[in-house]
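Write out structure tokens for MerR family transcriptional regulator.
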Amino acid sequence: MSYSVGQVAAFAGVTVRTLHHYDKAGLLSPGERSHAGYRLYGEGDLVRLQQILFYRELGFPLDEIATILEDPQANALERLRERQRQLGEEIARLQRLAEVAERAMEVQATGVSLTPEERFEVFGEVAFDLSYATEAELRWARSEGRREAMARAAAHTKEDWRRLMGEAAAWRAELLAAFDEGCPSDGERAMDLAEEHRLHIARWFTACPPDMHRRIADDFVADPRAFALVVPPSQQRPGLAAYARKAVHANAARLAGTATAGEEGR
């Protein structure tokens, strides 16, 4: 059975112009012609076209494909191995480019106006996950607190960030110590640490009332990316995120009780 150039182009997913180009290059010349002189492709032509498209998908140039098809047993395997090696290198290169692009987008998404080198110097292991930052932006885009936090973050100087991250590191060390020593999550020490975290947010980003702090802490457990902003994965322990969340909730309840007692004493 024979097929016209239009039919072959349609079911092979290529253009008629491509098939004409293959014919002109001597790579795929149809074995038959119609009475009117039009190209007709037989079964053998279609098999050859399938091979051509396979090698083209792997990125082989046409002249190399022609060489392989002329003597497939002598050339194909070695050339495929070499192409596999080249593709591996290209994948690694593209991955590096993707990481560079992600870091650049993170700078924009988080509002941190530092160079990548300064960010590494200041933040160290603490990483801003772009997907989490984007989701947070979508969830809280209309929030006044979110807008204020982003604006203040963008205005921080390198020295501001250094002080901020120094405070965060000291707080984190205290949290880890309390957890490792088995202090109860609703005990005074853990609640004081929760309150210190709440005030840290208010001092550097936006007002953080207890209800808002509870929602932030809920994300510690619901989304590992959120807790990684507070404690880098290399420093985390099993159950630490839940411990921090419980401490925040206990502190919020303590603050609510203090406010109620104050109102009753008036």
